[in-house]
Amino acid sequence: MTSVALRYTGVSVGYQGRPVLTGVDLELGAGRRLALVGPNGAGKSTLLKSVLGLAEILDGTVTVLGRSPAAARGLAGYVPQTGNLDPDFPVSVRQVVMMGRYRRLGWWRPVRTPDRRAVAEALDRVGLADRARHRFGLLSGGQRQRVLLARAIAAEPRLLLLDEPFNGVDAISQEAIVRVLRELSAAGTALILSTHDLGVARDLADLVCLVNGRQWAVGTPGETLTAGPLRQTYAHAALDLADGRMVLVDP
Q1: Is there a contact between 201 and 195 (Cβ–Cβ < 8 Å)?
Q2: Which CATH number fits domain 4-82+157-249: 3.40.630.30, 3.40.50.300, 3.30.750.24, 3.40.50.2000?
Q3: 94-108 burial code (b ≥16 CB/10 A, e <16)
Q4: By CB atoms within 10 Å of each CB, which of 8, 169, 240, 242 scores lowest?
């Protein structure tokens, strides 16, 4: 098993031959946590999709868990910004989480005891074991996000990608998600999350990558979440460091 979960060298990514993000140089080890930080439209989601082989690698080289992105897709989990499940669709929380096992099961094989156990354990980890029979669409936004996290971890990924996992999430759900992410990384799962929240990036990430059309900086939170790199990345925003707080404001 490779100790390097992700390596990007001189990479440009985009769609239909048109770059969205250029100059990406990253290396992420197993069990490490990377935060992608930048404004809307900066290319954070495109970079995440490129890890899954769903956006084009236009230049440079990429290895994911020692393989090409497409070949490694079955070893990665993904938590989108918003679920692609219709909240009005009559599906239970347990059924949503079981979807994370489909890659192992195949579409026509019966659910087995190990699959049921993995689903129960995933729901327990996110604090929603008592909601297994509840209808997914009737949960709060934060609870739905925790269910989608449970769906991803039920697949037992070696690399977990999360696209803005804390958007619209209440404090209880954010605390639960952070706790689970720390547990996963401690067990060796590499994590990549995109976020607008500089506090989350500072407190949760081992590495931060600042992007806005290109990679502006990568390093520890102490190296990247400072006035100079953030002003470069956000271009038309100013940074107020009063009282030790980092706040991006319009000029």
Answers
A1: yes
A2: 3.40.50.300
A3: bbbbbbbbeeeeeee
A4: 242
Indicate the pTM of the whole model.
Answer: 0.89
85 confidence band (pLDDT: 50, 70, 90): low
Indicate the residue type of 65: L
β-partners of residue 33 are 191
Smallest CA-to-CA distance from 30 within 189, 220, 209, 205 is with: 189
Report the C-alpha gap between 25 and 34 in whole angstroms. 13
Torsion of CA 38, 198, 143, 52, to 10 degrees: 40
Closest by alpha carbon to 251, among 232, 238, 242?
A: 238
Candidates 192, 154, 157; CA nearest to 29 is 192
Token pair in block for residue 125:
């980890």
Q: By the 8 A CB rule, do 30 and 4 touch?
A: yes
The mean pLDDT value for 18-43 works out to: 95
Each domain of the chain, given as residue ranges in start order, spans 4-82+157-249
